[in-house]
Amino acid sequence: MNAVGFATLAAGSAAGSQSISALNPFLGHEFFISPVYRPKVLQAAANLTMRGEFALAKKAVKVATSVSTFLWVSDFATIPDIAGWLRSAQATQIISRKKQVVQIEVPAFQYMRPHRICINTDARSTIYPTGTAVPKLAREKSSWRRETSIASFLIPGTGEEKYKTFIQQVKQELQKFPDVRVVLQLETDSIGNLVSNLGMCKHLSMSARSLAYAIATLQLPNVALYLDGAHAGWLGWDSILHPQSSLLLKNIGPTAVLMGELLTAARVINPKAIIRGVATDVSNYNGLGNQPEQGYDELVYIRNLAPLLAAQGIDAHFIVDQGRSGNQAYTRVGTDWCNNKYAGFGTRPTTATPDPLIDAIVWAKPGGEADGTSDTSAARYDEACGSDASLKPAPEAGTWFQQYFEQLLKNANPPI
Q1: Catalytic residues
Q2: Type and span of the H or E element at 37
Q3: 297 pLDDT above the threshold of 50
């Protein structure tokens, strides 16, 4: 067993197929407009119109009708929706005669387990060698920013096998529409937690095996896979990219090595397993070549990580979430991940990127869905959601937050 806890993996039904890796899956395709996000934003526009905010309502309609966001598969109940999304994209292709690319996020095994959240509250003592710079933003809790029903996974003793069933069912839905291209972003937070929290979260060895299984299984000719690479404020520091004196880092290995191990483990199951690359800044607010603060620029992170991945035999390309990164003119703090009150909509999804390493700028997090509640009496309350950096009052994670959506519209850069 290696550093991330892979047990022997037996080859199974995943063997034989391969996903898209040699080409940018977005090229020659239009970004599919989410049938989930669109009606929410149109309702937000209607709310603005009723208040006489006509200029802002017009901007909201533009977001609803022209901006693509990721579709999130949150639990077993969501899986049948995949076919509906792909059927809609197929119909759009037929009517418009323009090929569509559908963007989907598949959740992490660790967020389908009891006691699934592993919070690293003291980054200096647990991750970073004494005397090194420590990022203010140690981690983000994107699991609490989803519309998710975790209950279906809380069956003792069945978590890992249940997750395999989950992945198999996702695959079956994707196979129904081989003429629709799909970009899959695998398991938000998974790599970040594996790198930074393995010593504190015993279930993460299962998470590593489950992620390898997902990579191996979701190899389809119409699908491009991107692993989640967290973001610059979490993994973009030299002490993570290049292990030094930290015992924890020596036990886990650097980010690039971990990704290499995951791909190697996936190839035990499916020898043809491959990934297109890495997704970064999902649900976060970092800049892309325009943020001077250390640890808050994804372009710096990507350019540092890419050669390390190449050394692991991974020719990685990247997608970067800029959905809420429009405003970079404020000082970042460690508690600003939850309903950031300075955030604005960022660069719209595009393949016009600042570096050939980046396949596309995307909007992974649907802007306007709450990151977490500011209600201190709520069961899922996190103190970050009540911080000075957060917009309050805020509803539960995943529910619509009209005031926050309006803030994103007002602070958008470039303007909507």
Answers
A1: 189, 371
A2: helix 37-50
A3: yes
